[in-house]
């Protein structure tokens, strides 16, 4: 009754099912790993944002690479803004996906070292984006700033190409090593996204807090893949039983046709 399983059609169907089952199981495992990674990242961000501010030089120094554990930690620093060496970072968007610039201002600490401060977003001043935009000035004199510590941007990590030949005082990446060479100063590794003091008139527009990644979606995908994996053998069994039933009914009908007497012709 199951000899049909040796047919080419059923052999191919069975092999496909045998390949799909482990593939779907592995996809479910991968999605579960993504769920764990995103959950851990969300917890790390939440812990960093809720931690008390610490002096910036406790977490970074010239040449230091900001680690994942240090990212988003709130840091404080005392010094003055150096607007003469201020630059803007091209092709950055705000919360409404409008394209503009991030304002990157060197912040000179009391010991002479420089901290890069991202003061926020401003709109571009025209389609060409060649002229240096007008930027509201930060507070003058000695001030204390706080912000979220971030690692230096690279093309590999951000996917942003570091284009050359840009207009004066415009950059593509916030990179502390490049800025150290440009400024000829000791620049702390990474940079800070400013949170206080708030700008007058809300410009530049302060950058929002990092949002949570949707870890629950990966969990749902993992369960979905495993259900699919369980459904493949179930579907295979249903198809086999249906094929067996259809073949049995066809054979029974054929036997019945053979056993029944020939029908006599109707009289004229």
Question: How would you concisely characterize the structure shown here?
Answer:
With 268 residues, this protein is an alpha/beta fold.
Describe the overall structure.
The chain has 268 residues and is α/β, with parallel strands linked by helices. Helix content is 37%, strand content 20%. The chain contains four helices and eight strands; from the N terminus they run H-E-E-E-E-E-E-H-E-H-E-H. Strands 2-4-5-8-6 form a five-stranded mixed barrel. A hairpin with a 5-residue loop joins strand 3 (87-93) and strand 4. Helix 1 (8-50) packs antiparallel against helix 4. It is elongated, with a radius of gyration of 33 Å.
Give, in order, the helices and strands.
HEEEEEEHEHEH
| Mean pLDDT metric | 90
Widest β-sheet, arrangement of strands? 2-4-5-8-6
Main β-sheet: number of strands, strand sense, barrel status? 5 strands, mixed, barrel
- End-to-end distance: 46 Å
Q: What level of helicity do the residues show?
A: 25-40%
Q: Give Rg in angstroms.
A: 33 Å
